[in-house]
Write a structure and sequence with these properties.
Blueprint: H1 2-22, E1 67-73, E2 76-91, E3 94-103, E4 112-114, H2 115-118, E5 127-130, E6 135-138, E7 156-158, E8 163-170, E9 178-182, E10 190-194
Antiparallel strand pairs: 1-2, 2-3, 3-8, 4-7, 5-6, 5-9, 9-10
């Protein structure tokens, strides 16, 4: 009896595997799944699927920011850096902050400079502040207590080029249009940064 049940289960699993490999459907009137890209499914009538965007690499454009300020590098008066908020975007349960750092001529020694160095060799204490609802969001950390987003140590600019640094926060609890952004304690707060959903 036990051998018979075991053979039946094995035969069923084998049959289902073969059917799935051939693209056939077990449902009445079913047809094999159409071949092609996932974006084609969104083009068919009666589907609610969104077309899938093609993969791409986001270029760093220091002028494509919603707010920017030229600031002294902490502890290095006269050495300045242009800090621009590129975007503040909510995606599901997460919020992503994108910041563009551009060393100015005074801070450009031609060598490689990490975000850590460009922010005065201090820890970046990024935070989002919702003044309307009196809430503060701090950068998330992983199981090793590393900040989620770009590393401040390995994200580096060479010869004055602009670099993008990202920070990941929890999704916003309230439907707000703007937030204040703090990056380094000694820098002013970037106020009323628009939130994109």
């Amino acid at each position: 009896m036990r051998t018979s049940v075991h053979r039946t289960i094995t035969a069923t699993v084998l049959a289902l595997t073969l059917v799935s490999l051939t693209g056939c459907s077990l449902l009445p009137g079913g047809e094999p799944a159409p071949s092609g890209t996932a974006s084609q499914a969104g083009d068919e009538p009666g589907t609610n699927a969104e077309p899938v965007a093609a993969p791409s690499v986001a270029t760093v454009d220091p002028d494509a920011v919603v707010l920017d300020e030229t600031l002294d590098i902490p502890g290095r008066p006269g050495d300045t850096i242009r800090v621009g908020i590129e975007s503040l975007t909510v995606r599901g349960d997460l919020t992503e902050l994108r910041v563009i750092f551009t060393p100015t001529a005074s801070a450009d020694d031609g060598g490689e400079r990490s975000v850590y160095e460009l922010t005065g060799a201090t820890s970046v204490d990024a935070a989002l502040v919702d003044r309307e609802n009196l809430k503060k969001y701090v950068q998330l950390v992983d199981e090793n207590y590393d900040a989620m987003g770009s590393s401040i140590f390995t994200t580096a600019a060479v010869g004055g080029e602009s670099i993008r640094w990202t920070a990941v926060f929890a999704g916003l609890e309230d439907d707000v249009a703007t937030l204040d952004v703090r990056i380094v304690d000694s820098w002013p707060t970037f106020e009323n940064v628009p939130v994109t959903r």
